[in-house]
Amino acid sequence: MNKKLALYPGTFDPITNGHFDVIERALRLFDEVIIAVAVSEEKKPMFSLQERIEMINRSIAHLKNVKVVGFDNLTVDLAKTHGASILIRGLRAVSDFEYELQLGYLNNSLDDTIETVYLMPKLKHAFISSSIVRNLLKFNGKTEHLVPREVQKLIGSM
Question: Who is most buried in 39, 113, 120, 133, counting CB within 10 A?
């Protein structure tokens, strides 16, 4: 039997409770989830690639069948390298839909074996984005209700 393997790509700068919720939902649908952390230099991340990978690894330590990789190539190429034909994307609001739909079509045009599955976080996490968390961090705002506990501990020690 072939494992159902999904790739969840993103910048995760930092990973939020919304991202984590999508990961947990994906694990109900797939045998294994690979969280792919993009270098994303054009976005000028607040946290280094290694810091973001560390945050995710600490957040998922209790989960089985999840691993984290960094990448700086096309998502479809990374998926092929890992034998994944499913991409996971999170949708928080209608405003995300148009961009995510275009991205899904683009990835499928690059490799027609790639399918994108869109998952929504629970409503209580729907407003959370990494950019909101970064803005709060710039002003020493409260973020512990927006990110996993392990991430908050790491951010507090940086």
Answer: 133
